[in-house]
Fold this protein.
Amino acid sequence: MKPFLKWAGSKYKIIDRILEALPNGRRLIEPFAGSGAVFLNADFEEYLIADTNTDLINLYKQVQMHGKDFVAYASTLFTPDNNTEAAFYALRVEFNTCTEPARKSALFVYLNRHCFNGLCRYNSKGQFNVPFGRYTKPVIPNVAMLNFHEKSKRAVFEVADFKVIMEKADIGSVVYCDPPYAPLTATANFSSYTKDGFTLDDQQALADCAKKLIDRGVPVVISNHDTEFTQSIYSEAKITSFDVQRFISSDASNRNKAAELLALYG
């Protein structure tokens, strides 16, 4: 199943590799929801999907609860008149001030399909700030959204920090973590996915949480860049390294392969 959101670092392109690494279990727990690619394609009885990005989780709840009615509502934003720079920035302002859940979620889908590279980025004030993408004819991903609606019937979505969600893991749970990646270089850190970012201390804290879950009999798989830092913090895990094609760089000629890893605890 393909996710309905464009997403930096989406695991859809390497889903087979991740599914192969996931141990069997009753419930899949994902503390970093992202595009939902793993949840959509994994086969578990239950799912607990969380993120600190309130907009993302609220959108997933809208699709879960309202299905085709929400898709029909969101599709009203996908018009030629709204595919202009002026309309985009007006709707972006509306998104940043909107408090009505269904409207804000519909605007999130619109922004995702009309903004530059489908990025999700916020400034220090928590405002979505990705510029207009200038696409010829963006379309709403209605089929993928309805697929998400069906799969989400077995899921619970929560806005929460990874530490809180991982603490809920019990025997029979499998935890898959796809955090904002550790930087490959000192200038390459993209951590504005939420206004608070994700620091190297957070990376270490995530690894520490994984170690604690091993003692409780809960396996954990973590994705990240393959660097000296991540090799160090995941030293107690079984690590598989591989190359992945970049798709988000603003310079198409610079979308090279990046070294990634999967760290398996347990």
The two ends are 27 Å apart (CA to CA). Residues 54-75 form the longest helix (22 residues). Strands lie at 27-30, 46-51, 155-159, 173-177, 220-225, 238-245, 257-265.
